[in-house]
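Running this now, will post back.
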Amino acid sequence: MVVFILLGFLDVIVAGLMIATHLGFLHEWRAVIISAVYLIGKSIFLRGSFLNLLDILAAIYFVLIMLGVRTFLVYLFALYMAYKLVTSLMMRG
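Update: finished.
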């Protein structure tokens, strides 16, 4: 259970990095690549759910943000990652 809480906190950190990149506060491509690899790796490791597909889409969109794509989807992905943190905190038993 502690692992899922840690993954939830890491998801929120990635969401913060995603919003910071979207708003132009962060221009570090290494953080984007590390975050995308984290999301894709976690999705592959914990495969079998629709939410894991959303993680892969969030990773792809994060790379697209770094390439200049700016849409409202960043806020939807950030809310989704915050939802995963809240869910992991509620499931800790």
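The two ends are 8 Å apart (CA to CA). More later if anyone needs it.
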